[in-house]
Amino acid sequence: MIKILYVEDEPFLGKIVKESLESRGFGVKLVADGQQVMPVFQSYRPDVCVLDVMLPNRDGFSIGKEIRGQEAALPIIYLTAKNQTEDVVKGFRSGGNDYVRKPFSMEELIARINNLLQLSKGGASPKSGDEIAFGNCLFFPKKQLLKIGGQARQLSHREAQLLFLLCEKTNATVERKHILTEIWGNDSFFNSRNLDVYIKKLRNCLSEDGSVQIITLKGVGYRLVC
To answer: For residues 116 and 109, is the Cβ–Cβ distance under 8 A?
Structure first.
């Protein structure tokens, strides 16, 4: 049984989500106070942590950071009502693998939990000829084609290469140096400026899908989040 440590201080929401997860075969330990999380974490040893950000006595970001310090590969999902990009970046920097905005559907939360579990167990990466689905998008790397809703857009070779590298690690960090080396062969200043241009182009392409973002982690790299 997959064990989930679920941290939520809203009693009604906590009860509904806990019961819904349990009805789908997950084991769930619900904690409502931020200060009580780490002792429960130590004894429960969960497979996934789902952490609300706004908690009494201690915030979810600091809890996630401490958990990440002890368990480098443990999937962590943040629940937040905040929509600001800086809050999303802060969550990733605090060790989070993914985030879900409130209000959310149980189907979305469960899909994200299962996705992170698959990734943590070494799930297969997409192949360059496969159809890749993310958010409301369908990406065909071999055809260099991106479909959002009913609209299709032909990508350039570089745009398709970049999007594929980001799709390989959806909701995970892709290092800037790795992208530069894979696509341009080295991380020279000139190539780095080219990367900035192509990131901007992809953001413009994806702006039609509000559920998808390319997040910049300054000095580190990028995350395709959806």
So the answer is: no
Sorted by where each starts, the structural domains of the chain and their CATH numbers stand as 3-120 (3.40.50.2300), 132-225 (1.10.10.10)
What span, in angstroms and rounded, lies between the C-alpha atoms of 17 and 69? Answer: 27
- 168 phi and psi, to 5 degrees? -60, -30
Q: How far apart are CA 137 and CA 206, in angstroms?
A: 8
Contact 51, 78 (CB under 8 A): yes
Q: How far apart are CA 21 and CA 2, in angstroms?
A: 10
Structure tokens at 72: 């480098």
Q: Give the DSSP H or E segment for 91.
A: helix 85-93
Closest to 157 measured CA to CA, from 183, 195, 139: 183
Residue-level pLDDT, tens digit, the chain, 226 residues: 899 999 999 999 999 999 999 999 999 999 999 999 999 999 999 999 999 999 999 999 999 999 988 887 788 999 987 665 666 777 777 788 888 888 888 988 988 888 778 766 654 455 555 688 888 888 888 888 898 877 888 888 889 889 999 988 888 888 999 899 888 888 888 888 989 999 999 999 998 888 888 999 888 899 998 7
Q: For residue 5, list its beta bridge partners.
A: 29, 49
